[in-house]
């Protein structure tokens, strides 16, 4: 018996490679996360996404707690089973009237996971609709290869670091993953996805959290870390992430920097 998703939503996820929207929390509760997010950006004097990627949650107790939200983990369990690790998270944010976009890409090409089975829950801190540049997917693309050719465009408006782009995507059947503040979408890491600029007067703030079953291994580098967020890890492919004792926890910041470094080194080795 599924815990959160309906049988229809589970079928849709397996058919399309994504499902949305799924309710996570009330408007008042997500407004508190948005307030903390704004305070974080005010403190660092920069966009959170400029520094807090790969394991954005690690140095912050409130974000680490969010990666373990029982309702979200219940939904993940409905899709991948009772043992779940969280190996990463990233902010994807667009300011009001922001030309920045995310080009068509496939996460599994870059994740280095074997088997290539990871899922992302994209939590909306603000409404993500067509006009604010919500995510969109090519339904069914998760049934294709796990590694697809990408061209590195280095477009300054592309939120992806190297502007990694799958070319000539057939957009005739694309599906928009509209989610309002407090809701989330779920996508498979093989699903081809993108998002367009924000044409609205409101910001579009998303926090993407990455999960897998513990039998999934990181093959691009040694010493990959994760947290068991449900059930048990019977495989020991992942070392334990440190736990933040306070915001900007120095041990966790160092672990975040190491994760970035490992990721960048792995990306360079791919070239
Ligand atoms: O937020 C976006 O526009 C893109 C997010 C994304 O690429 C992801 O969560 O994998």
Question: What descriptors fit this protein?
Answer:
seven-stranded mixed β-sheet, 271 residues, binds 2-oxoglutaric acid, 15 strands, globular, 25% strand, Jelly Rolls
Textual characterization of the structure:
The protein has 271 residues and is α+β, with helices and mostly antiparallel strands. It has one domain (7-269): Jelly Rolls. The chain is 27% helix and 25% strand. The protein is built from seven helices and 15 strands. It has helices at 7-16, 27-44, 48-51, 61-66, 70-80, 108-111, 250-269, and strands at residues 18-23, 84-94, 102-105, 113-114, 119-124, 135-137, 151-152, 164-165, 175-177, 183-188, 193-195, 204-212, 217-218, 225-230, 239-240. The chain has a seven-stranded mixed sheet. A four-stranded antiparallel sheet has the order 3-11-6-9, with no helix packed on it. The longest helix is centred in the C-terminal third of the chain and has 20 residues, at 250-269. The model has no long low-confidence stretch (mean pLDDT 96). Bound molecules: 2-oxoglutaric acid. Residues 92, 102, 107, 120, 122, 135, 193, 195, 206, 208 line the site of 2-oxoglutaric acid.
Quick recap:
This protein is α+β, with helices and mostly antiparallel strands and 271 residues long. The chain has one domain (7-269): Jelly Rolls, CATH 2.60.120.620. The chain contains seven helices and 15 strands.
Topology, number of strands: 15
By CATH, the topology is: Jelly Rolls
The gross shape turns out to be globular
Q: Please report the distance between the alpha carbons of the first and last residues.
A: 45 Å
DSSP strand content: 15-25%
């Amino acid at each position: 018996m599924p815990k959160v998703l309906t049988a229809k939503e589970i079928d849709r996820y397996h058919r399309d490679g994504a499902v949305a929207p799924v309710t996570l929390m009330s408007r008042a509760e997500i407004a508190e996360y948005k307030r903390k997010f704004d305070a974080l950006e005010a403190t660092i004097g920069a966009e959170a996404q400029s520094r807090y990627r790969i394991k954005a949650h690690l140095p912050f107790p409130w974000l680490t707690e969010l990666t373990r939200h029982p309702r979200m983990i219940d939904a993940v369990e409905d899709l991948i089973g009772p043992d779940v690790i969280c190996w990463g998270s990233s902010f994807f944010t667009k300011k009001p009237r922001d030309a920045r976009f995310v080009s068509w890409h496939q996460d599994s090409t870059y994740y280095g996971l074997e088997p290539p089975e990871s899922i992302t829950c994209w939590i909306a801190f603000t409404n993500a609709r067509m006009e604010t540049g919500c995510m969109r997917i090519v339904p069914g693309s998760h049934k294709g290869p796990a590694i697809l050719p990408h061209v590195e465009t280095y477009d300054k408006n592309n939120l992806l670091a190297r502007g990694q782009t799958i070319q000539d995507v057939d957009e005739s059947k694309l599906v928009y993953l509209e989610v309002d503040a407090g809701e989330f979408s779920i996508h498979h890491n093989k699903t081809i996805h993108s998002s367009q600029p924000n044409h609205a007067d409101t910001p579009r703030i998303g926090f993407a959290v990455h999960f897998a079953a513990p039998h999934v291994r990181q093959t691009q580098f040694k010493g990959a870390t994760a947290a068991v967020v449900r059930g048990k890890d019977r495989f020991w492919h992942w070392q334990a992430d440190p736990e933040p004792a306070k915001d900007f926890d120095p041990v966790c910041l160092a672990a975040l920097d190491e994760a970035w470094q490992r990721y960048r080194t792995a990306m360079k080795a791919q070239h």
